[in-house]
Amino acid sequence: MNINDFDYYLPEDKIAQTPLKNRSDSKLLVLDRKTKEINHEVFYNIINYLNKGDVLVLNNTKVIPARLIGEKEDTHAHIELLLLKDLGDNKWECLSRPQKRLHINTIVSFGNGILKARIDEIFDEGIVNVTLIYDGILVEILDKLGEMPLPPYIHEKLNDKNRYQTVYAKVEGSAAAPTAGLHFTTDLLEKLKQKGVTITFVTLHVGLGTFRPVQEENILDHKMHSEYYEMSKETSNILNLAKKEKRRIISVGTTSCRTLETIYGKYNEFKECAGTTDIFIYPGYEFKAIDGLITNFHLPKSTLIMLVSAFASKDIILNAYKEAIKNDYRFFSFGDAMFIK
After folding, report:
1. Are residues 89 and 207 in the same domain?
2. Which end of the chain is more exposed for a tag (fewer CB within 10 A), N or C?
3. What does the pLDDT read at residue 207?
C-alpha cells in the first residue's frame, strides 16, 4: 500500500488554529459506512445518534506541559525537549531539537537550573532518553516551566491551557490531547447518561506513535512507536457485558480505538490490564472491539487517516473529507468531528 493513496488536498485556511468558544458547537459529519450516507450536524446533536445501551469509551489521559525550552550548560546552545514517555526513576523518552547538538552526558538546563536533563541515550529521528534532575514535585515544576505541546500546524497562541484538555482528563502523562474528546462538555455527557448511554474510560498516553508522520513510501514499512495504556476492571466488565448483549461499543478517538483493539486482539475479551501498544491499523484490518468511532479530521498520509480508512474504507473516507472541505469544516486538533457508524 502506497503512502500517496492516503493523500488529499487541504486548503491551509481549513486548519483550525483556535478552539471554538463552546466545545460542542463544532460541526459533526455523520457517516454511515454501510450506506455511504452523509449527514451534516452540530456536535451536541450526537445525542440523537447514540442509543440507550450504547457504550461510549473515552480516553481520560491528561496532557502535561511537556514542551521544555532550555540550553546546554556548557555552550548555552538553545535546546528543546518534548517529554514523550515516563520510563520510571525520573527517566523519560523525549523528542529533541536540534539533536545534533546533544551527546551522551550532555546536561540541558531549564528555568535557570530548576530542572535539568542529562542525556543518557541517543536514537534516530530526534529521540533521546534522559534523566531529569530536580528538587520537589515534577508536575509542579512542569506547570511552571513547560508549555502545552501544540502540534506544529497550530500557529496561534493558546490563551487557556484547559482548551487542549478534555473535560474528563484525569491521568497525567500525554504529550498530545486525544482531540476527538475535546468536543464533549460535562453537560452533554450528563445528557447522554440520562438517555441511557453508558460512559466508561480507558487511558492511553498519547506519544510519538499517534502523531509521528509516515515517511516510508510503502506504509507496511512504517514502524509505530509504542504508547502506554491501561484498562480498569470496571471498564472491562462493562465492555464484556456489552459484547455479550450485542450492544454497540463506540470509541471516542483513535487512541481509545487502538487501546480497545489492542486488548481485545490480545485476550479475545476485555480485561483489566496495562501495557504498551504499537498497533498499526490500516485497510485490511478486521476490527474486533468497536462498532462506531467518533473522531476528528486527520492529516494527509497519517496513520490516523489510515485507521479511519480501515474502519470505513479509503474511498468512503476520502469522499467524506471532500464533502467536509466543501462544507467548510475545520480540520485537525481544534477542528470539527466525524461520527462513523
Report:
1. no
2. N
3. 86
Distance of CA 53 to the CA centre of its chain: 26
C-alpha cell at 339: 461520527
CA distance 83 to 69: 11
Residue 150 lies in a domain: no
How many whole angstroms separate alpha carbon 266 and alpha carbon 263?
A: 5
For 107, residues 6+ apart whose C-beta sits below 8 A from its C-beta are: 72, 73, 74, 116, 117, 118, 119
265 falls within a domain = yes
Q: What pLDDT does residue 208 have?
A: 76
Residues 6 or more apart whose Cβ sits within 8 Å of residue 151: 176, 211, 332, 333
Q: Which of these three, 145, 175, 206, is where a domain ends?
A: 145
Phi, psi for residue 278 in degrees, rounded to 5 = -125, 30
Counting as low any pLDDT under 70, the low residues of the chain are 209, 211
Looking at the 3D structure of the chain, how many domains does it have? 2
pLDDT of residue 35: 96
